[in-house]
């Protein structure tokens, strides 16, 4: 799971990107060139509809105004009483628990881009009569009525205020009698005093804006906590933190949600306005129980649709909402839906909203199509070959999947400790497209490394971003090269050339091992299996992915992974236009038949494998302890892989007659499905242990089918696998894997971080490949890692975390942690 600050940014980026797509699709003709499209998009974002730029004026005069944001940030009442530069009234908007002040034009843009935002630019207001431009600021009557106790009410207007009112009334009476000249002089003095006061108030309001919007001290202190800490420990750490003004932070909870936030006092007041419960260090609260009533209906009915979801209600009596998160659809309660919308999800409550969401997706696809057309016209005008045009279109297809969720630049901030190191690392980093990252800052307590598209949106929200120039990039590269040279010179000069060659060979072997776990291609299936999406994707080396089939199983693989699965009966489409000859087809069938003829001898052991006709099969031991009987082509494919140890000559075979002990796995059903690849054949087969019929099962939205024994099917059901004829989903008895119905939701994001243990996020679990000396392994979601350990006994993947040794001086040991921007010593035994 991404850190919360990234998720909030990602949701805003995705929303504004979708709005740009909508504007572009409505405003331009698909036959226009690239320059015309960019001009229309710029015109829509900068120019006000009712006030076109007069001819002769500079384009720079029409820059977004942030007068409302700066002057009216301290609260709704101040915002409604503030005017923008063009004289229109400012508007107060609330996005979930966060309020801000903006101009009328900006409010309209936000409402089109973010459906859940609530702005008070309508004529309906309980506190003051509506004005043509906007709501008037509430009068003294409402300010008094809002007082919650006698002390607060009396503090609003004291005796001095009453005397001032009497003096003002007396003065007005005198002026009415004819002392107009004195009154005019006095009025001018009052106006000058008011103007001076306005400047001072403006400074105070600007300070309040920085305190509320820019101050992330409390929020960041909570992000630095250990996610495994209990509620009391995290709450105590929040109380120890301080906001930018030095005031204690407050601990806030949202009803019906398991999430907690550490906020400053002003932020906590806004959060309480929308239903949150916030407490200071001298208070405590009991969080409400997590409401799972809506999502429970998906467990009861695996075929639940959006219309079926809307018929149910959560514990608060609110209708359930149908949410789409990266292609995964869930039925959630109101509070849960509000939370996942921070993560870029789209939640709808009726057919009209569902239709609007589908139209937004269609508009984005039209935007991508328009970009392709513009690129094609531009390339054709320059005479660039068609092959390069197709490559750029493939990149656009990838962009249509990821939108603005490219985290290549964002993760740089998380991997470095200090802001200086983060800024330097950001300057040396490139995004997924190979473009340099941008360093963005907001105040003194928040900074982030973003790509170009994300920086564009951030600047629109008032965040300052700096793009590293090409010259600076070249200087940084040269500096890195020189630093590497100095490091090489410092190495021991007594090392021999042979040792250096051995070290180089070992590093290349490590790269090859890790390369087998390149998940770039398999991630193209995150929205469902698609051959077109697969072939349009490229792996980490820039090579096109291949669409591979293994009977009913279909998957997107890199070219190296594709070569590995072919000897096991897999077939991959390499976009070769030439037709296969009958000899090629016969050889492919023979390879597949030989594989299954050998694999079926696995259960009988090494002797049965060796006694096959013409010694066509070979026994291979594995690091998991169990052995397997492979055909010749399969042995060639796994040769050099540390996990397999194959007996390739007669001497080795004589020395390893007895198979290694390992987990007993019934492969009879799997073999029948692999040999015939048919649901009917699967159901007609029986497993070799109990004699029960095999079962045909499917894994979530990935479209992966498998033929399993009855026992294997029961173990797989809690992992989100659905098997034909199985109505109820229940966990196995004993130390069983937990229920986890949305496997593709967390499985692919964690799997994408399998390049190394350092990249694997703390919300996922790193599993070492047994027997690997190069540190190869997989990054899995916690439930999947638990299931792997349960099903294999940690014989293939080791997902256990290393135990920390107790220090003899543990009682006196302290650790330095950063809370609220301050480094403090904390006793680990207390944490």
Automatic annotation (TrEMBL):
Superkingdom, taxonomy of origin: Eukaryota
Residue numbers spanned by region Disordered: 117-142, 155-208, 478-521, 799-831
Biased composition (Acidic residues): 156-167, 175-208, 486-516, 800-812
Biased composition (Basic and acidic residues): 125-137
Keyword annotations of the record: Signal
Cleaved signal peptide residues: 1-18
Keyword Signal: yes
Signal in keyword set: yes
Protein's name according to its UniProt entry: Uncharacterized protein
């Amino acid at each position: 799971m991404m850190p919360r600050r990234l998720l909030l940014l990602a949701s805003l980026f995705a929303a504004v990107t979708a709005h740009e797509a909508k504007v572009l699709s409505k405003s331009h003709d698909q036959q226009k060139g690239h320059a015309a499209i960019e001009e229309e998009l710029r015109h829509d974002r900068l120019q006000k509809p009712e006030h076109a730029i007069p001819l002769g004026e500079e384009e720079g005069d029409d820059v977004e105004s942030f007068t409302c944001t700066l002057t009216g940030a301290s609260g709704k009442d101040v915002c409604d009483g503030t005017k923008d530069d063009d004289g229109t009234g400012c508007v107060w908007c609330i996005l979930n628990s966060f309020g801000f002040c903006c101009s009328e034009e900006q409010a309209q843009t936000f409402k089109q881009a973010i459906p859940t935002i609530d702005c008070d630019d309508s004529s309906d207001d309980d506190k003051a009569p509506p004005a043509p431009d906007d709501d008037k600021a509430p009068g003294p009557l409402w300010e008094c009525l809002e007082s919650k106790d006698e002390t607060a009410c009396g503090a609003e207007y004291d005796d001095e205020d009453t005397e001032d009112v009497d003096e003002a009334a007396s003065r007005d009476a005198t002026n009415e009698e004819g002392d107009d000249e004195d009154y005019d002089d006095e009025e001018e003095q009052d106006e000058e005093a008011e103007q001076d006061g306005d400047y001072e108030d403006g400074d105070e309001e600007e300070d309040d804006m920085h305190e509320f919007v820019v101050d992330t001290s409390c929020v960041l202190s909570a992000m630095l906590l250990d996610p495994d800490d209990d509620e009391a420990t995290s709450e105590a750490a929040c109380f120890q933190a301080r906001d930018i003004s030095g005031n204690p932070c407050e601990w806030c909870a949202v009803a019906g949600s398991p999430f907690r936030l550490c906020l400053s006092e002003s932020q906590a007041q806004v959060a309480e306005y929308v239903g949150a419960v916030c407490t200071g260090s001298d208070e405590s609260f009991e969080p409400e129980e997590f409401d799972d009533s809506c999502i429970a209906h998906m467990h009861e009915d695996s075929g639940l649709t959006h219309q079926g979801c809307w018929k149910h209600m959560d514990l608060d009596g609110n209708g359930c909402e149908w949410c789409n998160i990266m292609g995964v659809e869930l039925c959630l309660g109101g509070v849960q839906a509000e939370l996942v919308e921070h993560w870029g999800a789209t939640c709808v409550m009726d057919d009209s909203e569902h239709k609007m969401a589908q139209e937004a997706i269609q508009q984005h696809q039209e935007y991508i199509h328009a970009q392709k057309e513009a690129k094609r016209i531009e390339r054709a005008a320059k005479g660039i070959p068609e092959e390069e045009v197709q490559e750029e279109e493939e990149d656009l297809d990838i962009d249509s999947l990821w939108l603005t969720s490219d985290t290549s630049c964002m993760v740089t901030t998380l991997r470095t400790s200090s802001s200086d190191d983060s800024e330097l690392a950001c300057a040396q980093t490139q995004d997924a497209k190979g473009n340099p990252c941008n360093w963005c800052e907001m105040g003194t307590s928040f900074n982030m490394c973003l790509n170009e598209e994300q920086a564009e949106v951030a600047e629109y929200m008032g965040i300052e971003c700096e793009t590293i120039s090409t010259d600076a990039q070249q200087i940084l590269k040269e500096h890195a090269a020189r630093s590497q040279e100095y490091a090489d010179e410092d190495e021991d000069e007594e090392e021999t050339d042979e040792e250096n060659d051995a070290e180089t060979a070992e590093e290349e072997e490590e790269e090859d091992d890790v390369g087998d776990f390149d998940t770039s291609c398999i991630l193209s299936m995150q929205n469902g299996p698609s051959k077109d999406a697969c072939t349009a994707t490229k792996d980490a080396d820039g090579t096109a992915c291949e669409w591979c089939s293994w009977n009913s199983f279909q998957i997107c693989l890199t070219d190296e992974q594709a070569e590995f699965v072919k000897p096991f009966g897999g077939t991959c489409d390499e976009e070769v236009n030439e037709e296969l000859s009958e000899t090629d087809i016969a050889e492919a069938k023979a390879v597949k038949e030989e594989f299954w003829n050998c694999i079926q001898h696995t259960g009988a052991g090494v002797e049965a494998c060796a006694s096959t006709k013409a010694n066509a099969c070979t026994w291979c031991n594995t690091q998991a302890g169990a052995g397997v009987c492979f055909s010749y082509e399969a042995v060639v494919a796994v040769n050099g892989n540390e996990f397999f140890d194959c007996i390739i000559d007669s001497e080795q075979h004589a020395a390893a007659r007895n198979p290694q002990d390992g987990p007993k796995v019934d492969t009879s059903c799997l073999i029948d499905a692999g040999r015939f690849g048919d649901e009917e054949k699967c159901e007609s087969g029986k497993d070799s242990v109990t004699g029960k019929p095999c079962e045909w099962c499917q894994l979530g939205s990935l479209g992966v089918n498998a033929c399993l024994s009855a026992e294997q099917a029961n173990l797989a059901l809690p992992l989100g696998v659905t098997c034909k004829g199985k109505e109820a989903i229940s966990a196995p008895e004993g130390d069983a894997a937990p229920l986890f119905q949305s496997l593709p939701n967390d499985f692919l994001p964690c799997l994408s971080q399998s390049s190394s243990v350092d990249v694997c996020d703390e919300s996922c679990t790193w599993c070492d490949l047994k027997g690997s000396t190069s540190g190869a392994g997989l990054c899995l979601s916690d439930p999947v890692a638990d299931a792997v350990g349960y099903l294999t006994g940690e014989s293939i993947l080791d997902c256990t975390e290393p135990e920390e040794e107790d220090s003899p001086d543990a009682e006196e040991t302290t650790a330095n942690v950063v809370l609220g921007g301050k480094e403090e010593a904390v006793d680990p035994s207390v944490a």
